[in-house]
Amino acid sequence: MTTVSSPMLFLCVLISLFFSSSAQTCQSYTFSSNRQFSSCSDLPVLNSYLHWTYSPSAGSVQIAYRHTGVTTSNWVAWAINPTSQGMIGAQALVAYQQSNGSMLAYTSPVTSVSTSLAEGNLSFQVSDLLATFDNNEMTIFATIELPNNLTTVNQVWQVGPVDQSTPRSHTTSGDNINSKGSLNFLSGQTTTTGNSVQRRRNVLALLLRPNKDHKYRFYWNIYHHSIGYSVIILSVINIFKGFDILQLGKNWKRAYIGIIVFLGFNFLMLEAITWNIVLKRRSRSSEKSHHGVNGVNGVNGYYGDRSQEVV
Q1: Number of structural domains, the chain?
Q2: Where is this chain compositionally biased, Low complexity type (predicted)?
């Protein structure tokens, strides 16, 4: 079965490598305003990137937070939380495009889960705050005086809808609840709380997997395959959502549909071949088992008759 599935696996890996090689990273990005930053980080979720230059003598950091794949109907935010990880207590830089077409960038302290991101002073000083929007990408620029000259901070980044020039609540599931972690401005090391929790869940799931002969293994297989196929379906839907957000032409969708149809056809063909081989092996195994039982009975019967003759 592994040999039969190898072409499909190779094809998937090849396509993944193609798309990953063309994916954008912070290292290859050049700002149109000729701004330069000494360090950057590809944030793991929400299509976000952080660029910065840390000044130890001034105890400050110049940052540029970029969020791609957004529209004029979105707000974006990046924040430092001096007191804890997560949303409550975050000192946020917020930006969105106003109804007159101009970009608004302001500071907002987050004091509750039901925040409306109202403008207010932060617990530390912020200067040179501005925002830009170009080619479905919002960028927030600012200079931050780090609280107590900290070099490692808790960071939070987020995106949500704008309605009538007012930020509304963001999604409370998926990547929107995993967009937090810590950042070291000196080393550039980042950690993400949501991802580490997810990794622990995956490891726990493997540890809880029943043995092949366990009575609950059947239900485990249902769970395992359901999760796998659900992820594939959601991934396909997510790509189409991305096309709508980026407002790409129909040719992109047609090309993607063609790829999906091609992969789906190969998947069905390989599944049919695999099941054909499995059924043949089961049939042969059943026949061998049947002949083996008959052979044993025949031998026992023969020697039984011979023993009776001797007696």
Answers
A1: 2
A2: 292-304
Annotated ligand binding at 225? The verdict is no
CATH of the domain at 69: 2.60.40
For 269, the domain range is 198-285
Same domain, 160 and 203: no
pLDDT tens digits along 212-268: 677 777 777 788 778 888 888 888 888 877 777 666 778 888 888 999 899 888 988
Residues 6+ apart with CB under 8 A from 194: 45, 175, 177, 178, 179, 180, 181
Output the CA angle 173-177-180, nearest 5 degrees.
Answer: 165
Bridge partner list, 74: 161
Cβ atoms of 94 and 167 closer than 8 Å? yes
Specify whether the CB–CB gap between 48 and 180 falls below 8 A. Answer: no
HEC string for the chain: CHHHHHHHHHHHHHHHHHHHHCCCCHHHCCCCCCCCCCEEEECCCCCEEEEEEEECCCCEEEEEEEEECCCCCEEEEEEEECCCCCCCCCEEEEEEECCCCCEEEEEEECCCCCCCCCCCCCCCCEEEEEEEEECCEEEEEEEEECHHHCCEEEEEEEEEEEECCEECCCCCCHHHHCCEEEEECCCCCEEEHHHHHHHHHHHHHHHCCCCCCCCCHHHHHHHHHHHHHHHHHHHHHHHHHHHHHHCCCHHHHHHHHHHHHHHHHHHHHHHHHHHHHHHHHHHHHHHHHHHHHHHHHHHHHHHHHHHHHHC
Residue range 132-189, pLDDT digits in tens: 999 899 999 999 998 787 888 999 999 999 888 888 888 878 888 888 988 888 887 7
Which residue, 176, 194, 212, sits at the end of a domain? 194
Q: Does 222 lie in the same domain as 133?
A: no
